[in-house]
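REQUEST FORM: STRUCTURE PREDICTION
Request ID: SP-0412
Submitted by: Lab K.M.
Chain count: 1
Length (residues): 622
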Amino acid sequence: MILCALIFVPGVFAQSASTLPATTTIVEVNAEPVPFDLLTGSVSTFTREDLAASGARDVAELLRSDANVHLSQSGSKGSLTTLTIRGGKPNFTLVLIDGIPANDIGDQLGGAFNFATLDLDSIERIDIFRGPLSTVYGSEAISGVVNVVLRRPEEMPRFHVSAEGGQYGYAYANGGGSWVHGASGVAAGGSFMRIGQQVLNDGSMLGTANVLANHRFSSGSSLDGFARWNRLSDSELPVSSGGPLYALVNTPEVNIADQVSTGGTFRQSLTPRFSYDARAGIFSRVGSDNSPAIFDSIPPGPSYVPSTLSDTRFLRFDALSSQQYAFRPWGTTYSSVSWLRESGSSSGNLGGYLPANYQLDRHTFNASGTVIAARSFGSLTAGLNVQQTNDYGVKLSSRAGGSWNFRGYQLHLSYGQGFKLPSFYSLGSPLVGNPDLKPETGRTYDAGVSHAFFHSHVRSSLTYFDNRYDNLTDFSPTLFKLVNRSSAFARGSDLDVLAEFRRIRVGGSVTYVDAGLIGTSDRLRDVPRWSEALHLRLVLPRQFVVRMDTTWVGRRFDYQVPVPEKMTVPRYTMSTIAVERKLSSRLVWHMRFENAFNSHYQEFVGFPSPGIYVSSGLSYTR
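STATUS: Completed
RESULT:
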């Protein structure tokens, strides 16, 4: 195993701030190769209490209110929703569902995850790590990781059901239950959401189902398993088409995809100093995409994009073993080895007659190691990863940094490297694919300070970051294919503040990102320079709870084929007000007002919001 040389663990608001205790050698077994709260960098955590208090209906709505990340939705509710972290591309963020990687590197996004496929009901916690984690996970984790932890049987109510409806034919229902007997437990649940036309030729439907089971052995070991399925069907005008306002042809793009994630983890503590995990999982996605042609003019000009029809399949097998050893009361090593086999295929056509087929396979082996040393005044940690693939040989990545406590302040400093292997689509697409593409690389410097005021009722943090990405994959009009030809930078800062008192909780965040392509004056698409968020939760008499979330997104660069002269999207504001009343110990009524203060804005040029949106429903729990 490969061990690493020392980094500090940050302790900042909305970030995991734990340090290893200096007085014990007891090792806790974790499903992840290294616990997120011990890694260098900025980590935002949404607990189950945060998810319930947010009033959000899905993960996309929850993350949209966090200014530390930028969530993009290419159309109305239910349409393609991607996440970027600190100026990185959407496919630079790795998404894990109970430790199983869920990015599809065979789709046209090059591995970006669609957050519209995640509901909140079955989720216990969401961690967002901002910064490269290729030292732990290898490819895809070049700018950050979103870690989704599902609810265990003992964390779920015995029975729950909820339903709501609203404008545009919106309907949502979910339900489930759990059974726990002694050391064993089983939980199951599902949800259904549909919404009709909101602007023009748009609408979506999402169904999910999941089951989880676990058992705790008397020897101190445990076994957990889960299976999760979802189907998303949506229609919308294609990205870059100019949307309902500027598209020259209003034929929608229709997408249908089934996703399955399943896995199991065995954990055991052999001694107070040593423990290990063994995990295996499968992620599968089968999709059908029918996208119309995008016209730059009539008749078509040089920027015309032909129609595409494709059926894609992607399958990933993932196996991992991780070990934790406390060699001293103040020091612990974490090591892991993993193996992935990925296969993807696509069949279809371009323009209705040109065949567009490919089939690719990739085998990946990862070995990583981390050393963490912690004292009362701070901690040090370091990590190194070796990844070998059948196509790109050996890739190395490392992290290093440190944190320390000084008169109530926590300071941290870190450095990390990451890389992203080319996706199957970018390698195999008959239209723009290039089998000679090189991996994209990145490096990040991260420094911050955090402090708690007024007996910890008020917490704040400030973080500065500096990212550099090289060998970015761009489209070359001259060669008419994807090439490695550019480098990009993204530097800026995050500010978070949270105040909690008896009946009120108010928090806010501000993110500034100065990003662009090196050697040119061009800016990166869909990277706002400023993003701000404000959250308020107020508990009122008579069992009323009022929540308000407002997000401000700054002006940013965009490109739409029919209107290349419209290069920027104006600044816009999104606000949601939610009112909840507890009618009894088991029954809760809720009402929501989305786009409450700004009913007309565009997330992309030509894609207007549907306006003010109202929904209401009931939830029952026992």
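NOTES: The mean pLDDT is 87.
Reviewed by: T.R.
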